[in-house]
Specification:
This protein is α+β, with helices and mostly antiparallel strands. 41% of the residues lie in helices and 23% in strands. It is built from four helices and five strands, in the order H-H-H-H-E-E-E-E-E. It is globular.
């Protein structure tokens, strides 16, 4: 009987460990996403474009599909966001993409990082601001490319 209690106790501890790891992961994602502004675009005045590596073998159709999704993002940031961040973007979509924001993707920089995921350099212009370059991390969800997050592209 004592051995059975230990097994149950270990299972309980394992569940607690899994919950703790999930909580830490959720906090890290929240910190990343909520950084200035919402983690979508950093204000980096010295940002420069990132270029595709020599080993990249982008698929032209895939790169064009990603570019189209990125161009459309400012018109509907909630729908253009990956599931992991959709709730945060929905709480303040104009923070993610203020009215008048434009995104110019550079399809030749598309790099597939995994099946259904990759990165592309984009030029973002906010209203009354100079353009800035970012690396957009994209994910394929139910046949549509979605923006997961961006980081400043400091070449």
């Amino acid at each position: 009987m004592a051995a059975g209690l230990r097994t149950i106790n270990l299972e309980g501890q394992l569940k607690k460990l899994v919950v703790a790891i999930a909580a830490v992961a959720a906090v890290l994602v929240a910190i990343l996403v909520l950084s200035k502004p919402f983690g979508w675009f950093e204000n980096n005045p010295q940002a420069k474009p990132v270029t595709a590596s020599q080993n990249a073998s982008p698929t032209p159709n895939e790169a064009q599909a990603v570019a189209g999704a990125l161009e459309a993002f400012p018109t509907d940031p909630v729908n253009g966001s990956a599931e992991e961040v959709k709730v945060l973007v929905a709480s303040s979509p104009l923070t993610a993409a203020p009215a008048g924001t434009t995104i110019e993707p550079e399809p030749n920089t598309w790099e597939s990082t995994a099946l259904g995921a990759g990165t592309m350099t984009i030029k973002v212009t906010y209203p009354k601001s100079e353009p800035k370059y970012y690396l957009a991390f994209m994910t394929l969800e139910e046949g549509s490319w979605k923006l997961l997050y961006t980081i400043g592209a400091d070449g």
